[in-house]
Model the fold of this input.
Amino acid sequence: MNTLEDFIAKCEANGKSYEEIDLTDAPELTEEDFATGHFKYWNPPQKTITMRIDLDNLDWLQSVGKKNYQSRLNNALRWARLNNCPVAMLWNRCIINNDTDLNL
Done:
């Protein structure tokens, strides 16, 4: 019967050392690569909230599927924030005009 220790020993015996690995075909990563990267398995902390949403927006979010529509909303908000969408400008206009509807 193989144990974890046996498996690790076998891998270490058959594997290459770091010096033996050919890295010439691997591109050098820059700060820009990391700045524009998407971290698929990184999950930022989340908080459960309650919010009101117009039915037409909810229907649009659920048009792909009723499951995970909250994640789609979160992804849309993240995309808007990361792409500098003028949400703050629209919000400020509503406050200045004492308007509750963005009239998009």
